[in-house]
Write a structure and sequence with these properties.
By secondary structure, the protein is of the alpha+beta class. The protein folds into two domains: about 200 residues, Bira Bifunctional Protein, Domain 2 (BirA Bifunctional Protein, domain 2, 2-Layer Sandwich), CATH 3.30.930; about 45 residues, SH3 type barrels (Roll). Strands 1-2-5-9-8-7-6 form a seven-stranded mixed sheet, sandwiched between helices. Strands 13-12-11-10-14 form a five-stranded antiparallel sheet, with no helix packed on it. Strands 3-4 form a two-stranded antiparallel ribbon. The radius of gyration is 18 Å and the shape is globular.
Length: about 270
């Protein structure tokens, strides 16, 4: 009889073990669930947000069949080859740091975890990608949920861990496996959520300047010639010169500086 987990280099996550470490008194994380398969963890978490799931809820899927990226793009990966998860955050008003920083701090948290694993060449690409040697290893999708007068933010993260070269979605992507950096998904999961808790604490404490300073240090976008594609078909070309206090990208077009919010962008290409 064949095992459900024949692919032994892609073992399942031990939800109980992760829960024991992360869901503790005083922790940001209040509940954590691992499901074998779902269409989209963000969609599931959005539904949970509307039935009053607590802040700090974490949902991880061993396999997503219709994961979503920005602008409704679909995203899939072989079972247990990635870390695909969504977390629910309920920021308390009034906010000292704008909501636009939540996807950026999530990218920083993933970058933090990769650096802790001593992976070199990492950086953050505005607004929602984590890069290694100019190739995408992780993506972030942050969505606001307003329900019954309460504010919630769902943050989805997809990190390429054990994907082989033939399984990568585009030639511009990479994974820890392709980089020759084997890392247990469970170890990485714990590290990412710990790093995210630290970055979110900075956000809640109004430490926007510190977040922005670190983000600019690690940015692979700022200082580059970029082409920003907008959903209406307009393309902006210029030099990315800064990320402002709201989390928007500032692009010097030569004739002036354009402020571009993440919600207004379909794609950013560097060095064009």
């Amino acid at each position: 009889m064949s095992s459900r987990y024949d692919d032994l280099d892609r073992p399942p996550l031990n939800a109980a073990a992760v829960r024991r470490v992360l869901v503790t008194p005083g922790s940001l994380w209040t509940q954590l669930e691992v499901v074998q398969q779902t269409k989209s963890t963000n969609e599931d978490m959005r539904r949970l947000a509307k039935v009053n799931a607590p802040s700090g809820s974490v949902l991880i899927a061993e396999e997503q069949t219709a994961g979503r990226g920005r602008l409704g793009r679909t995203w899939t990966a072989p079972a247990r080859s990635s870390l695909t998860m969504s977390v629910l955050l309920r920021p308390q008003a009034p906010l000292a740091t704008p909501l636009g920083w939540i996807p950026l701090l999530a990218a920083l948290a993933v970058d933090d975890a990769l650096r802790r694993a001593e992976l070199g060449g990492t950086g953050v690409k505005w607004p929602n990608d984590v890069m290694v040697n100019e190739r995408k290893i992780a993506g972030i999708l942050s969505e606001r949920v307003d329900h019954d007068g309460s504010l919630a933010v769902v943050v989805g993260m997809g990190i390429n861990v054990g994907m082989r070269a033939s399984e990568l979605p585009t030639p511009e992507a990479t994974s820890l496996d392709v980089l020759g950096q084997p890392l247990d998904r469970e170890v990485l999961l714990k590290s990412v959520l710990r790093c995210l808790a630290t970055r979110y604490e900075q956000f809640g404490n109004g430490e926007g300047d510190a977040l922005r300073h670190t983000y600019l240090e690690r940015s692979t976008t700022v200082g580059q010639q970029v082409r920003v594609e907008l959903p209406d078909g307009e393309a902006i070309r210029g030099v990315a010169v800064d990320v402002d206090e709201s989390g928007a990208l500032l692009v010097d077009e030569g004739s002036g500086v354009r402020v571009v919010a993440a919600a207004d962008v379909s794609h950013v290409r560097a060095n064009l």
